[in-house]
Amino acid sequence: MNQMLAVAIGGAFGAMGRYWVVGAVTQWFGRSFPYGTLTVNVVGSVLIGFLYTVLVQQLRLEPHGQAILMAGFTGAFTTFSTFALESLNLFQSGRVSAAILYIILSVVCCLAAVAVGMWLGKQLA
Questions:
Q1: Is the Cα dihedral 107, 109, 110, 111 positive or negative?
Q2: Where does Na(+) bind (predicted)?
Q3: pTM, full prediction
Q4: Largest Cα–Cα distance in the chain?
Q5: Which tens digit of pLDDT belongs to each residue from 73-96?
Q6: CB 22 within 8 A of CB 35
């Protein structure tokens, strides 16, 4: 299978997953803060840390499998470009403290989530 096709297949499922999670979280918590995007970024960070540890480092999954799951699925599931847009929109709407909180939470939580995912992956070894 072509690498690009592998990324596209994974990306389709990642995008659908993101759409569902953002919708569910937004319905639960409302639209006053980008909770949905923050959620998919943190969950996606745990997932990519886990997948990297298990599939790349431990199982040495072949490149097409890596492309489907890591570049495709997690790349489409996480939404850094949306994060950037929402951050800027919070700043432009005068919600400076919310923007700064969102940026700090996103960066710190996602870095921690990658570490958690890697730790979880190592526990399975």
A1: positive
A2: 75, 78
A3: 0.84
A4: 49
A5: 999 999 888 899 899 999 999 999
A6: no
